[in-house]
Design a protein that fits this description.
GO molecular function, one term: oxidoreductase activity
CATH topology: Jelly Rolls
Strand order of the largest sheet: 1-2-12-9-14-7-6-3
Keywords: Iron, Metal-binding, Oxidoreductase
Shape: globular
Distance between the termini: 54 Å
Number of helices: 9
Helix content: 25-40%
InterPro entries: DIOX_N, IPNS-like_FE2OG_OXY, IPNS-like_sf, Oxoglu/Fe-dep_dioxygenase_dom
Protein name: Clavaminate synthase-like protein
CATH superfamily: B-lactam Antibiotic, Isopenicillin N Synthase, Chain
Bound molecules: 2-oxoglutaric acid, fe (ii) ion
Family: Belongs to the iron/ascorbate-dependent oxidoreductase family.
Length: 373
């Protein structure tokens, strides 16, 4: 095992999925992965096992989705959905209490809502999606669902590689994934969205999305257009660019994975700057791997060999970061932690579907900029 002493990163490592096809390559991949997990919390994955033609089709659909008539987008507003799926207008979302300059459609993997009276409210969070009419975007839904299914499989394969990198059995992660290290589709619901960051106007805020951690386990980000803007915060608090690299996914680690692994796997603070005035829009498609809703991570933190845990020491002290969200994983069921995240980002949806939580987090009422509906 190599000592990963280059603790303060200034660029994001690229890992090649095709290495996994030989025994020697596999060992190399796992070693590079261990370094990226512990020291960076971000990586690019080249040659991912997701059909090229589905990715290309999705890239081609993306601007057309935003070009749908205004009233069609409004018909599937997120405010309709207790599951926080659907369309959010530009400026409808908050990060760290500040308005994000992005327009987006939240989708996810298929799931049938399980909530019944008496169950905790957070079980309402997973449920059916809202889609634009098939005739306006023929083939979009089927393509996206095919894409999501492949990324979901990849996300489980990746967790098994993480188990290998940290020298724990793959079943160690099963409780977080609904009891199986490779759950069947429909056991969990993973969120994904299609995002448009328009060019900022002269003098406007450049907050495409403000500094934050992702929740859950892993995020797989497809940078659809050729625009820079995604930035990752290193241990010294400096913002490092993660520009689009054709043919790759950007993978980063969520706060739940960090908590479960005693901080071995880093959740890394990141943000997106809006394209400069006069630019075309930036588009991206993140996929957020969820974990079982009823799991309280604080009760299930994994054990590691001392020589693995010691690898954390080589990265040194984690410095100041600008992100503060998802700190509650040690305390509450993961579903509730995610619901808190959704309520804070989309107060208008919360006011309608989770009025008690809305009052708790927004005692002064709807913030002026967030009241987009
Ligand atoms: O759009 C991007 O590149 C990143 C978006 C992101 O970090 C998020 O939505 O959590
Ligand atoms: Fe993110």
């Amino acid at each position: 095992m190599t000592d990963s002493s280059s603790s303060n990163f200034s660029s994001i490592p690229i890992l090649d999925w095709s290495l996994l096809s030989t025994t020697e390559g596999h060992a190399k991949f796992v070693e590079q992965l261990r370094h990226a997990l512990i020291n960076v919390g971000f990586l690019y994955l080249s040659h991912p096992p997701v059909a090229r033609e589905d990715v290309e089709a999705l890239v081609e659909y993306t601007p057309r989705l935003f070009d749908l008539p205004h009233e069609e987008k409004e018909r599937i507003l997120m405010a309709n959905s207790p599951h926080f799926f659907g369309y959010s207008r530009l400026g409808a979302e908050l990060t760290k209490g500040k308005t994000d300059q992005r327009e987006q459609f939240d989708f996810g993997t298929p799931y049938e809502n399980q909530w019944k009276p008496g169950d905790p409210e957070y079980l309402k969070l997973w449920g059916p999606l809202q889609w634009p009419p098939e005739e306006l975007l023929p083939g979009f839904k089927a393509t996206y669902l095919r894409y999501l299914d492949q990324v979901e499989q990849l996300s489980y394969d990746f967790i098994r590689l993480i188990a290998e990198a940290f020298e724990v059995p793959e079943e160690a992660f099963a409780p977080f994934l609904g009891g199986d290290a490779k759950p069947k589709p429909g056991v969990l619901q993973h969120r994904s969205k299609i995002v448009k960051y328009p060019a900022r106007k002269e003098g406007d805020s450049d907050q495409g999305v403000g500094p934050h951690f992702d929740g859950g386990f892993l995020t797989f980000l497809l940078q659809v257009s050729d625009h820079p803007g995604l930035q990752v915060q290193n241990l010294a608090g400096e913002w490092i660019d993660a520009p689009p690299v054709p043919g790759t996914f950007v993978i980063n680690l969520g706060k739940a994975l960090e908590t479960v692994t005693q901080g071995l796997a880093r959740a890394t603070s990141h943000r997106v700057l809006s394209p400069p005035p006069g630019s075309t829009p930036r588009y991206s498609i993140p996929f957020f791997q969820s974990i079982a809703q009823e799991i309280c991570i604080g009760d299930l933190v994994l054990d590691f060999k001392p020589e693995i845990l010691k690898l954390k020491d080589s990265r040194g002290q984690t410095g100041v970061v600008d992100s503060v969200n998802y700190q509650e994983y040690g305390q509450y069921p993961s579903g509730y932690v995610n619901l808190i995240g959704r309520v804070k980002s989309h107060p208008d949806v919360a006011e309608r579907h989770y009025p008690d939580m809305f009052k708790q987090f927004f005692p002064q009422g709807l913030p002026a900029q967030g009241s987009a509906y």
